[in-house]
Amino acid sequence: TVSNTKFSFQPSTGNLTITGQLGGASASFSGNMSAATITETSSITLKENISPIENALDSVMELAGKIYDRKDGSTKNEAGLIAEEVNKILPNLVKKDSEGNPESIYYTKLSAYLIEAIKTLKVEIDKIKG
To answer: How far apart are CA 88 and CA 117, in angstroms?
Structure first.
């Protein structure tokens, strides 16, 4: 067991625990992670150059959900998106590696596009209803 007041690792279970703030540092995990709550900083006090998302429905319609197996055997029939494909449509939702290659997707940020797409659909439905 390796531990201190902020970090502990139990090799027998594979449990890694980090407590407190990481102060701008990043963490990377392989495998499953669970939490009671995950939040992201989002206050307007932290933002500038704010503009509305345009053509969200068109962008969402270009995304293609996939079912796949992980090459490392860790999961089968996993649902998700392919980072390289998302990068062509919504590059601001894709994290790139040090060489600029698509690596992962900011799935939580996708919700902003989904909200705007739903709002567009609601307007279209209301027009049809009269």
So the answer is: 18
Per-residue pLDDT tens over the stretch 35-93: 788 888 999 999 999 999 999 999 999 999 999 999 988 889 999 999 999 999 999 99
Spatial neighbors of 99 by CB under 8 A, at least 6 apart, are none
Pairing of strands 15-18, 7-10: antiparallel
Contact by Cβ (8 Å): 57, 121: yes
The closest alpha carbon to 51, from 105, 94, 92, belongs to 92
Alpha helices, DSSP H only, in 45-106? 56-62, 83-89
Give the CA count within 13 Å in the CB-facing half-sphere of 96.
12
